């Protein structure tokens, strides 16, 4: 009876100033979305030299694997697993692979690191999928996950589990967001990959599930070097998911629902390719909200003159990655080199 939900739901239901309704000039609307999104994702770090350190190199039959640490900003280093195929080609397309609320980048490689981890049945080995398709694959530990968790003691995150709460809140306290920081790290990972002459900087794909899908979506909006974005189980209207169902605090961008819905963010990605992956039975990103969000995305891409460059790939189960549906949708699109 005394819940504040009524006021919040009323505000979420009102027409938002940057909502796409088909009447706007696309280029002008895109510029507005990019400007506001840049503001809302928070202050961006200053670029520092990458200072990469190859900590380990493993030669597999089909690819060379390097574990690399590198600087993303002053006082912060990231770590990744970077694999380049052995197909004798001069250049390889690159897949940036992002895991969600799991135990680290090893999941993208289809590996188990902790005894408590169960075998994956949700196609989360996205780096292996990319390698099999002839891509170089860079699996990045995100802030708050894997080896990049806070050192502050918390009652969660045992046995390698995610510890986002303190990191996300500290980011807010200093004028940033954790989503914005994760996007920055993706850009720095691309910087690192492009120091290798084998990587084709014109063919960069980014994909990931859940929290990895969230970063994929926003990172593609922020970095135009990402030519194809495939976010999985993450893209849904804010009002149906983030604002209506319990989620980790790392999903939230302060004040964004005052200006736009999640589908409107796609204006910052178009005309580059966008494949939204979802699970029909995903309980935290409901199908109806996904479809409403994608209707906006489709309208945006139509206004941009490239309706064929966006797709919705729906799996028939819950919150997981869907390799068959995702790559089938990717293959159905026109050649991404044009």
How would you characterize the overall build of this protein?
This protein is 28% helix and 20% strand. The protein has a single domain, classed as Alpha/Beta hydrolase fold, catalytic domain (Rossmann fold), CATH 3.40.50. The mean pLDDT is 94. Helix 5 packs across helix 6 (211-222). The protein is globular and about 60 Å long. The protein is an alpha/beta fold and 338 residues long. The protein has eight helices and nine strands.
Question: What integer value in Å does the Rg equal?
Answer: 19 Å
Give the tally of structural domains: 1
Q: Which percent bin holds the helix content?
A: 25-40%
Poorly predicted segments? none
H and E order = HHEEEEHEHHEHEEHEH
User: Which architecture does the CATH hierarchy give at level 2?
Assistant: 3-Layer(aba) Sandwich
């Amino acid at each position: 009876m005394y819940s504040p939900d009524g006021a919040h739901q009323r505000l979420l239901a009102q027409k938002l100033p940057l909502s796409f309704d088909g009447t706007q000039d696309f280029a002008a609307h895109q510029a507005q979305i990019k400007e506001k999104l840049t503001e809302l994702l928070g202050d961006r770090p200053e670029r520092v030299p990458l200072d990469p350190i190859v900590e380990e190199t493993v030669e597999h039959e089909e690819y060379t694997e390097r574990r690399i640490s590198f600087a993303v900003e002053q006082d912060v280093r990231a770590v990744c697993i970077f694999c380049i195929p052995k197909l004798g080609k001069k250049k390889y397309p690159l897949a940036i692979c992002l895991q969600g609320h799991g135990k680290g980048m090893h999941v993208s490689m289809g590996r188990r690191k902790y005894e408590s981890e169960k075998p994956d049945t949700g196609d989360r080995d996205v780096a292996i999928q990319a390698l099999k398709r002839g891509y170089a694959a860079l699996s990045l530990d995100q802030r708050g996950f894997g080896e990049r968790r806070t050192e502050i003691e918390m009652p969660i995150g045992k046995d390698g589990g995610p510890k986002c709460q303190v990191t996300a809140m500290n980011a807010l306290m200093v004028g940033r967001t954790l989503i914005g920081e994760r996007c920055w790290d993706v850009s720095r990972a691309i910087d690192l990959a492009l120091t290798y002459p084998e990587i084709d900087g014109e063919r960069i794909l980014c994909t990931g599930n859940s929290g990895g899908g969230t970063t994929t979506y926003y990172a593609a909006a922020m970095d135009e070097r990402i030519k194809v974005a495939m976010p999985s189980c993450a893209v849904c209207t804010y009002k149906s998911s983030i604002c209506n169902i319990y989620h980790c605090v790392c999903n939230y961008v302060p004040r964004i629902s005052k200006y736009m819905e999640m589908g409107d963010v796609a204006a910052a990605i178009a005309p580059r390719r966008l494949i939204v992956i979802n699970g029909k039975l995903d309980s935290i990103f409901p199908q109806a909200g996904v479809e409403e969000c994608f209707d906006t995305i489709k309208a945006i891409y139509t206004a941009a003159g490239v309706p064929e460059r966006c797709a919705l790939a729906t799996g028939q189960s819950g919150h997981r990655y869907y390799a068959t549906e995702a790559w089938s949708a990717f293959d159905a699109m026109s050649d991404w080199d044009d």
